[in-house]
Design a protein that fits this description.
The complex is a heterodimer.
Chain A lengths: L2 H24 L6 H22 L8 H4 L6 H27 L6 H18 L3 H19 L6 H32 L4 H10 L4 H18 L8 H8 L2 H26 L3 H7 L1 H21 L4 H26 L1 H27 L16 H4 L1 H15 L5 H15 L3 H27 L15 H19 L1 H16 L1
Chain B lengths: L17 H15 L5 E8 L4 E7 L1 H24 L6 H20 L3 H19 L6 H32 L4 H11 L4 H16 L8 H4 L5 H10 L3 H14 L3 H21 L6 H21 L3 H32 L15 H15 L5 H15 L4 H26 L15 H19 L5 H11 L5 H4 L3 H31 L3 H5 L2 H21 L4 H23 L14 H22 L3 H21 L3 H27 L10 H25 L7 H14 L4 H9 L1 H28 L16 H24 L7 H19 L1 H7 L4 H15 L2 H4 L9 E5 L4 E5 H30 L3 H4 L13 H12 L14
Antiparallel strand pairs in B: 1-2, 3-4
Helix pairs in contact in B: 1-2, 2-3, 2-9, 2-13, 2-17, 2-18, 3-4, 4-5, 5-7, 6-10, 7-10, 9-13, 10-12, 11-12, 11-16, 12-13, 12-16, 13-14, 13-15, 13-17, 13-18, 14-16, 14-17, 15-17, 16-20, 23-27, 24-25, 25-26, 26-32, 26-36, 28-29, 29-30, 30-34, 30-36, 31-32, 32-33, 32-36, 33-36, 34-36
Classes of the chains: A mainly alpha, B mainly alpha.
């Protein structure tokens, strides 16, 4: 396989980012930047999917690339998830930004560069490329949150995320330094080998590992490092929220899995540090808190923010199981993230479509009776929340099933039980969306939400809806790909 | 609740009934032709071993016939019932989807697939219950119904997973076949409890029974189809299906008998509370379901047959009764018992159907209900262990008779009046289905032999069973028992209102309905949620930071504690020489400044003091023999202070007011946290400094930088030689950033339209001393910068640091004398300086190409200067480029940022609030603000309200 095919997705992100920047600066007419961007990202994802499906021998890559970046099926799988999320977000932005009079080209540039960072992160096999990828991804996101400059909430959300993110980055960096000090390596494999050989300075490794985990837990918004999430998600324009909740989270989990399984996957570290136990604790906190806090929200965006926190908890259950049984659990994590990506994009897209100029749907009350007035606009939302809830035959169900099944196989039955109970609580607030849309009438003096008409948003909804159903009806194929990716990750 | 007919023409969607009708015919044909059991197998998710296995035996067939048969009638009924309703397409769509899901559920052989369809029926039930809404109460009951059944569904999934792990298969037939080999495993109990939870929630058994009457908010076709004839029987079906595998277990028998008995008796106590006809029928449905569960649990060959018979009988009498109540509702607009009566004359067909169904429900001879009750009685008396069940069943039967009487006699036959007077019969589509079903019930009562083969085959699927006819009891004993029951039932019927009044007066109705635990649980969760959210996500950044750090610290402490004490701390050797005195002094300074930052309250002062922290650490580096690091630290610190100061000057004018002082406790907490964190990090660094894991890099530069690059300053050598291309990239980025920020700065300046008082320049009126001082210092700083640049390759210094010193000079000048004055002093102007210098650096690597070396290989030549010699190199050109680019870009940026601030001097600026600062060139943002105010309700900026409930 050609090396160019393998790195084409990365190059495509960079080139199209620069291209969009230029077009935006010089084009007099409003160009269809959203179209170009989403197609570029989708093509990148498609290339990765092609590479993934084709399989075969790894490409012959120059050493400067292979030292820092992997190009294994695992990375390509995450490419698909990241690009799917980003492409859908851009499509949503194409409708949303225009509808709300925010059409400015830099949004697409930010997505492209941030997406580039996310793909680097998913490929990172070294603490250095990890950090560079993480920051490249995050800087774009900070700016994206503050995209609606005149909104105090947006600025506040961005500021909080930026400050806390800097803290987390500092912690992560310190942890990396300690890992290096303890092992003399910055690459995951080297760190892992040093630890396995017993030559590493264990105290430093343990604390370094802890700090790296804290930094990553922050990025995936695991409780108690989640606080920025609701503020940032609420303040950001909805397409940016979509991007953050799917692509960014997927990339962060990609490197989380890599660090845990490749660098810290050795039996001795697991028992000495007890990181599986620690992550299990985080997972329980995250699932319970995310679901419980989502119940009391009035804003759907905030509810979805807490829901995304809860989903991070489910993914971590898979990660804990991976410590015990390896590949099957990792493949569950992969599948879950893919399913979550399309489901969450669908839910946010449905929220986008509910608003039109001058009246954006944000709170539950804004959706009163929409289902009866505009059933076709409400249908995607129903599918989206059902999938997030984990109802068959949607993607979300199999995601949950695989993850909890992996936990049971790994012997963490109690974790699966907590997960199931937490998701039962989750049903309460997801259902409320359906209840409000179909079973409540708007108040007398309420401004009625009128669904926007946008080809972009309609396309995004159709695509994500189809993906949700496809993953729910035919999960086998995707699961097989995920299993193969997981196997190769563990070597 | 009123369901007034709007358009009498039945909907054409009723033709959908042809589909279930065809399926019904097909199923019947398949049964009669003896094709059972039908099996098929399609792989679905091979990696999980899940396949779409189909296995249709008589038990499945019984359900299939019920689903399709009653389904066809429900579609016909719905066509007339929903005529003129704008949402009827949705009703039919959901009903159809529901039917398909039900068929999937009862025909599959895979437990996993069964669960999938099971959950789909739950969701469709939710959507169908919510189809007719109005009161908050209805919505809640719809949601409650789904929460209960979905929660049970999750338990079922857990049970399925556990069971298939124990048994090694999820195929029901294989499960039954292999059951004896694993049924005694301890995990089976856990799996069974989960499966019980699923089945009991679906079939509304105690203590989950309360959702079913709540679901009566649904339109009549839905109630008939889902909540009486089919969906609620899924739980019973699942238990019957699995009975052959677990029937011998004590856990299985005991649970089913106890829960079933409780569920058959308790609803018949609660039913007296109701005045709504539909809810009365719902409670009696719960009771019937309880009886079915009880029958499955009972040992003996009669039980299975009784289950099958009662399953059919219940569907045949309860569905017509629901239809009839729906018709009454349609005709009168009410279902309240006290408001209707004597409708028999007006609604002849409905009344006839209801009468026949009522007789069957009461178990009067010659009806199929009688046949079923008869078999049940025998099944119950078969067992010795559960004798008490028999007595309970007398009460249930009697209450059923009374309820049947209420649903028929009181509604359709009353002596004097017809209430309300305007009632009339609906279109044939509404009375034909109940009439057909009820007649069928009577016909089967007369000729039970017609269904005997089907029922006994179905019963065989559950275990050893007898045929229906073979079980019929001897007539006399049966009639005596019947007589007792009827007398009791009739007395209850007449006492109905009295019991109702007495029961309503009882206290704590919630507890009585047992939905108390559900309501309490929901309330508890909400309370926990709002407390947790407020405390942990209250919107305050300090809390966020504190929590994150505290958790990280806690975890680190735990980990270190696990590791136990260490003796591997580095030793401290203290020698009192000059440098260590400086180092000690720097340390004292550092600590004092750190404490100062915490104590000082003015932000500006805080910034300066925090700058001191940086400067003293630079001093420390210097004393410890790392002058290059010290220089870098120093310059970075300068940039930090300058940029932040420029920013703070602006923020100050926004008059945000002082931050509210935080309580003493918080401050102490924060101090403790900071102290703990600081000492942990310090300890780690100290500990980590013992290890130098890979000295290769240090050695490489120490040994190679002089012979290869002719430089002793390793940092500079790395910057300009080994990593020159990186540096080149960086200065290009710096330059481009500067250029890109120019339009932004220009835009910001245009917004500041505050008239500038004539003659004022910057801060000059207040800072004469500063002005004078800077005038003197500026040239000195530039000379220093040049020196640092030139000697940088060997001594501490270099282009970057020199550039930063020059930037500091320009910034100082801008603060003292105004931005323009500073910008004018820069050679060539900042833009040209930056771009030109970057190009110079770019070009400095080219000569090497002519000599066949790689780009950026530096060339050296020695220039004799008489008394000494100077080594001249392309490195100098490169470093000069770095110097110029840094100075031009960062100096220009700093001066302009400071210049921005000048314009805001004056009274107008202080009144400018933070928010409506908008670019006129961007018309879009105006709308944004409007949207914001519309979409987001006003909350304090610094604290978005987390929970406003």
């Amino acid at each position: 396989m050609s090396m160019w095919l393998v790195i084409a997705p990365l190059l495509l992100m960079l080139v199209s980012g620069l291209f969009i920047m230029l077009v935006d600066a010089f084009a007099k007419e409003r160009a269809e930047l959203a179209l170009v961007t989403s197609v570029a990202i989708a093509v990148a994802g498609a290339i990765s999917l092609g590479v993934l499906v084709q399989g075969g021998a790894p490409a012959d890559m120059p050493e400067v690339l292979t030292r820092y970046l992997a190009s294994d099926p695992f990375a390509h799988f995450f490419d698909v998830a990241i690009c799917a999320g980003a492409s859908l977000s851009v499509l949503l932005a194409g409708g949303y930004l225009r509808e709300h009079g925010l059409e400015r080209g830099e949004f697409y540039v930010l997505v492209l560069f941030s997406c580039f960072g996310a793909m680097i992160l998913a490929r990172a096999i070294d603490l250095l490329s990890l950090f560079v990828g993480l920051e490249t991804m995050s800087l774009g996101v900070y700016a994206m949150i503050a995209f609606r400059r005149t909104s105090a909430r947006a600025v506040e959300g961005a500021m909080k995320y930026f400050l806390l993110g800097s803290f987390a980055a500092a912690i992560l960096l310190f942890g990396s330094a300690l890992l290096y000090a303890g092992t003399g390596h910055t690459d995951f494999v080297g760190i892992g080998e040093m630890i396995a050989s017993g030559d590493a300075e264990n105290r430093l490794v343990l604390v370094g590992m802890l700090m790296v985990v804290v930094g990553l837990a922050f990025k995936v918004s695991a409780v108690p490092f989640h606080m920025w999430t609701p503020d940032a998600y609420e303040g950001a324009v909805t397409p940016a929220t979509t991007f953050m909740s799917v692509s960014v989270k997927a990339a962060a989990f990609a490197v989380f899995v890599r660090v845990c399984m490749v660098a810290l996957g050795d039996e001795s570290v697991m028992t000495a540090s007890g990181w599986p136990t620690a992550i299990a604790g985080l997972a329980v906190l995250t699932m319970v808190y995310g679901n419980v806090a989502a119940i009391v929200q009035k804003s759907i965006k905030r509810m979805l923010a807490y829901s995304s926190i809860a989903h991070a908890g489910y993914v971590m259950v898979g990660l804990v199981a991976a410590a015990e049984i390896g590949a099957p659990a990792i493949s569950a994590v992969l599948f879950y993230l893919l399913a979550y990506t399309v489901s969450n994009a669908l839910a946010f897209g449905s929220l986008v479509v509910m608003g039109s100029r001058g009246k954006e749907a944000v709170h539950y009350d804004d959706l009163r009776g929409v289902g009866r007035r505009h059933p076709m606009a409400a249908l995607p939302f129903v599918i989206g929340v059902l999938s997030l809830m984990g109802f068959p035959p949607t993607a979300g169900f199999f995601g949950k099933y695989y993850v909890f099944n992996a936990a049971v196989q790994a012997g963490d039955v109690w974790l699966a039980i907590v997960g199931v109970l937490a998701s039962a609580v989750g049903a309460y607030y997801y259902l409320r969306v359906i209840v409000v849309m179909f079973m409540q009438e708007p108040e007398e003096d309420q401004v009625l939400a009128v669904p926007m008409k946008s080809g972009y948003v309609a396309t995004a909804l159709a695509a994500s809806g189809a993906a949700v159903m496809a993953l729910g009806m035919m999960p086998g194929w995707f699961l097989d790909v995920a299993i193969e990716a997981a196997r190769q990750l563990l070597g | 609740m009123s369901e007034q007919p709007a358009d009498p023409a039945p909907s054409r969607l009723g033709l959908l009934a042809l589909v279930p009708l065809a399926l019904f015919g097909l199923a019947l044909w398949a049964y009669v032709s003896g094709a059972l059991p039908l099996t098929a197998h399609v792989d679905w998710i091979p990696s999980l071993g899940i396949s779409f296995g189909v296995h249709v035996d008589a038990l499945s067939m019984l359900l299939v016939l019920l689903i399709t048969g009653i389904g066809a009638l429900v579609f016909v009924y719905a066509a007339g019932y929903s005529a003129g309703d704008p949402g009827r397409a949705r009703l039919f769509g959901f009903l159809f989807a529901f039917m398909v899901a039900m068929l999937g559920c009862v025909t599959t052989d895979d437990l996993f697939v069964l669960f999938l369809f099971w959950e789909i029926t739950s969701v469709l039930s939710f959507l169908l219950v919510g189809f007719k809404f109005g009161k908050e109460e209805n919505r809640q009951s719809a949601q409650q119904a789904l929460m209960i059944t979905a929660g049970g569904g999750l338990a079922l999934l857990a049970g399925v997973i556990l069971l298939s792990r124990v048994a090694g298969t999820s195929s029901i037939q294989q499960l039954i076949a292999t059951a004896p080999s694993w049924v005694d495993e301890p995990e089976v109990s856990g799996a069974l409890i989960c499966i019980f939870a699923g089945a009991f929630t679906k079939s509304a058994q105690v203590p989950f029974h309360f959702w079913l009457p709540g679901a009566m908010a649904a339109p009549t076709p839905v109630s008939t189809y889902l909540h009486s004839a089919t969906m609620v029987k899924l739980g019973v079906y699942l238990l019957a299906r699995l009975h052959p595998a677990f029937g011998e277990l004590t856990l299985w028998q005991l649970t089913l008998v106890i829960v079933g008995a409780a569920s058959s008796v308790w609803p018949m106590v609660l039913v007296f509370r109701e005045r709504d006809l539909k809810r009365i029928l719902a409670w009696s449905t719960v009771s019937a379901l309880g009886t079915l569960v009880l029958l499955i649990g009972l040992p003996g060959p009669g039980a299975a047959t009784a289950t099958a018979a009662f399953l059919l009988a219940h569907a045949l009498y309860k569905a017509p009764l629901f239809f009839a109540v729906g018709n009454v509702d349609h005709a009168t607009g009410t279902r309240i018992l006290d408001e209707i009566g004597g409708l028999g004359g007006r609604m002849r067909f409905t009344a006839a159907a209801a009468w026949m169904a009522g007789l069957s429900m009461a178990g009067v001879p010659l009806s199929f209900g009688y046949v079923a009750k008869d078999v049940i009685k025998i099944a119950k008396s078969d067992t010795d262990i559960f004798q008490w069940v028999t007595y309970a069943s007398v009460f249930v039967s009697a209450a059923s008779i009374a309820a049947a009487g209420v649903a028929t006699v009181r509604v359709f036959w009353r002596r004097n009046t017809t209430r309300p007077a305007h009632a009339k019969e609906g279109p044939p589509t509404t009375w034909f289905p109940p009439l057909l079903l009820a007649s069928l019930g009577m016909a089967l009562g007369l000729f039970p032999g017609l269904v005997d083969p089907l029922l006994s085959d179905a019963a065989h699927a559950m275990g050893p069973a007898a045929s229906l006819q073979g079980l019929r009891s001897d007539e006399t004993a049966s009639y005596v028992a019947l007589g007792v029951t009827v007398v009791l039932g009739v007395s209850i019927f007449f006492a109905w209102d009295r019991i109702h009044r007495r029961q309503v007066r009882l206290p704590s109705p919630r507890a009585l309905q047992a939905s108390g635990w559900y309501a309490g649980m929901m309330k508890g969760i909400r309370r926990v949620a709002s407390v947790a959210t407020r405390s942990l996500s209250g919107g305050r950044l300090p809390v966020y930071v504190g929590t994150i750090l505290a958790f990280a610290l806690l975890a680190a402490g735990l980990l270190l504690a696990r590791g136990g004490p260490t003796s591997a701390w580095p030793g401290f050797a203290f020698e009192a020489d000059a440098s260590s005195v400086v180092a000690a002094g720097a340390l004292v300074f550092l600590v004092a400044a750190s404490i100062g930052v915490c104590v000082v309250r003015d932000r500006f002062l805080m910034l300066l003091v925090s700058g001191l922290v940086g400067f003293s650490s630079a001093l420390l580096f210097l004393a410890l023999g790392a002058p290059d690091v010290a220089f870098t630290q120093l310059t970075v610190e300068v940039a930090f202070v300058v940029v932040l100061a420029a920013l703070l000057l602006r923020v100050r004018r926004l008059s945000l007011g002082e931050p509210a002082p935080s309580p003493r406790g918080h401050r102490l907490l924060r101090a403790a946290l900071a102290l703990a964190l600081g000492s942990t990090v310090a300890g780690l660094v100290l500990y980590g400094s013992r290890f130098s894991p890979d000295p290769a890099l240090t050695e490489f530069f120490a040994t190679r930088s002089v012979p290869e690059a002719y430089g002793r300053n390793v940092v500079n050598v790395i910057l300009v030689d080994y990593r020159a291309v990186d540096t080149l990239g960086e200065i290009i980025v710096v330059t481009l950033t500067f250029l890109a920020s120019l339009p932004l700065l220009r835009l910001l300046r245009r917004q500041r339209r505050a008239p500038r008082p004539p003659g004022e320049t910057g801060l000059s009126d207040r800072a004469v001393m500063l002005d004078v001082a800077v005038r003197g210092i500026y040239p000195v700083m530039l000379v220093a910068a040049a020196v640092v640049l030139l000697r940088g390759h060997n001594e501490p210094g270099g282009g970057f640091i020199g550039g930063m010193i020059a930037v500091a000079a320009t910034a100082a000048l801008a603060v003292a004398r105004g931005a323009n004055a500073a910008l004018e002093r820069m050679p060539f102007g900042p833009q040209r300086l930056a771009v030109g210098s970057a190009l110079l650096s770019l070009a400095s690597g080219l000569p090497a190409l002519f000599l066949g070396e790689p780009y950026m290989t530096h060339l050296w030549t020695t220039v004799p200067l008489g008394f000494t010699e100077y080594k001249l190199s392309t490195v100098l050109a490169f470093d000069l480029g770095v110097f110029g680019a840094v100075w031009g870009a960062l100096g220009g940026l700093a001066a302009r940022m400071i210049g921005l601030d000048e314009r805001t001097t004056g009274p107008a600026a202080t009144e400018r609030p933070l928010e409506p600062e908008r670019a006129e060139t961007d018309p879009a943002t105006t709308d944004t603000a409007a949207i914001d105010t519309a979409a987001i309700d006003p909350v304090p900026t610094t604290r978005p309200a987390e929970s406003r409930s």
